[in-house]
Design goal:
The longest helix is centred in the middle third of the chain and has 29 residues. The chain is of the alpha/beta class. Helix 4 packs parallel to helix 5, helix 5 runs parallel beside helix 6 and helix 9 packs across helix 10. It has one domain: Rossmann fold (3-Layer(aba) Sandwich), CATH 3.40.50.720. The chain contains ten helices and nine strands. The strands form two sheets. The chain has a seven-stranded parallel beta sheet, with helices on both faces.
Length: 265
């Protein structure tokens, strides 16, 4: 495993907490050089210090809702490193609100951060990857990128969009040495539900019961890295919640029955 990632330039967005933070710790143990991005520089510095090789970590604050900032930051990183070996589009925001109540500004914000930010960053880094003849895009989607679910209309829509985009990136560029892995986590023990947006864009502020009983972010990170090493195109990570993927695919009536039992308050 170490031979696969040692010395590789790996850029992780959403690296200040949750899955992104856990990925930083795991990849640092393997000797990778990490670019750590998120809005909160102070939190990124704490992650850097906690990494196995902090001297191989570059902290790069980044607001994923600002396209011009993403593009300018990508230009700086390309100038500094030449090319990025692995891009992990992990940064994002979840949602906890009913469609009928949700202001359209919330839909737009979630789509901008969860979908368009990764598209912009991918487009900026791909030319250097293609010129080098290698590169790996890892997109952290969700199991609700594979089916719709109550209270997550904008989030699910953004994650569905990710699948279409990254699958096409692979289809067009796999012969140029570009690999793509789409990750679909289920319930992972992170603050994603706490930070999720409500109908007016304010934070949900509560830990979901299912989230609290999810697998650890460290376990999730190890599975992602294993999938990347094996060049998996899509990987599902979770517990019993993953059954919903197969219900929707093979027993759709059961999926629709279960979803129909989630009632509006």
């Amino acid at each position: 495993m170490r031979e696969k990632f040692e010395g590789k330039i790996i850029w992780i967005t959403g690296a200040s907490s949750g899955i992104g933070e856990a990925l930083a710790y795991e990849w640092s143990k393997l000797g990778a050089h990490l670019i750590l991005s998120a809005r909160r520089e102070s939190e990124l510095e704490l992650v850097k210090v906690a990494c196995a090789y902090s001297e191989r970590c570059t902290v790069v604050p980044l607001d994923l809702s600002r396209q011009e900032e993403i593009e300018a930051t990508a230009d700086r990183m390309l100038q500094q490193f030449g090319a990025v070996d692995i891009l992990v589009n992990n940064g994002g925001i979840s949602q906890r609100s009913w469609v009928i109540d949700t202001d359209i500004s919330v839909d737009r914000r979630i789509m901008e951060v969860d979908y368009f930010s990764g598209v912009v960053l991918t487009k900026k880094l791909l030319p250097a990857m293609v010129a080098k003849g290698s590169g790996h895009i890892i997109a952290v989607s969700s199991i609700v990128g594979l089916f719709g679910f109550p209270l997550r209309s904008a989030y699910s829509a953004a994650k569905h969009a990710m699948h279409g985009f990254y699958e096409t990136v692979w289809a067009e560029l796999h012969t140029k040495g570009i690999r793509v892995t789409v990750v679909c986590p289920g319930r992972i023990l992170t603050d994603v539900s706490v930070n999720a947006l409500t109908k007016d864009g304010t934070p949900h502020g509560e830990m979901d019961h299912g989230q609290a009983n999810g697998i650890s972010s460290a376990a999730c990170a190890r599975k992602i890295i294993k999938a990347a090493r094996k060049n998996k195109k899509e990987v599902y990570i979770g517990k019993k919640d993953l059954l919903m993927i197969y219900f929707k695919r093979y027993i759709p009536w059961l999926y629709y029955f279960l979803v129909s039992k989630v009632q509006a308050k």
